[in-house]
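Troubleshooting log. The previous structure file for this entry was overwritten by mistake, so regenerating from the original sequence record. Sequence copied from the archived sheet and checked twice against the printout by T.R.
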Amino acid sequence: MNTRWVLVDGYSLLHQWAMFLTRSGRSGTLAQRRDLLVKTLQQYADQTGHPVTVVFDGGAAKHQPDPDPTGPGLHVVFSPRGKTADDVIERLVAQAGHRDRILVVSSDNMVRQTVETLGAHSTSAEMFEDETRAALRALGAAVRAHTRRH
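Regenerated output below.
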């Protein structure tokens, strides 16, 4: 399988993924949920070998995770003032080569339609949650198997 570049609308995932919600609404502060998402995406990148760029709205955010929080394969971007994460994602796709190897993750249908017109692939936050959970289950199984052998 060819390595693909995964471009993620960070807040789209935070608002859609079940792991960030409780019965009473959202769990934890925005910064805590954002950091958990970054760590989860790092694990996904480590497991799949797919580089991930997660884009958040707001260059003026008070708390931003470290640009390289846990290792290679993940890049965190905050949109500059006056631009949205959608703008940044669309620009990154437009400037990229091999657009057919890009997967954009967003629940915004306009963004998905735009990047598909440019030649990239797209999926919803919900569908990517399923893919991420499967990758993390595989990672957990590999760790358990390694632990049993040693």
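The beta strands are 5-9, 21-22, 25-26, 52-56, 74-78, 102-105, 121-123. Archived copy saved in two places this time.
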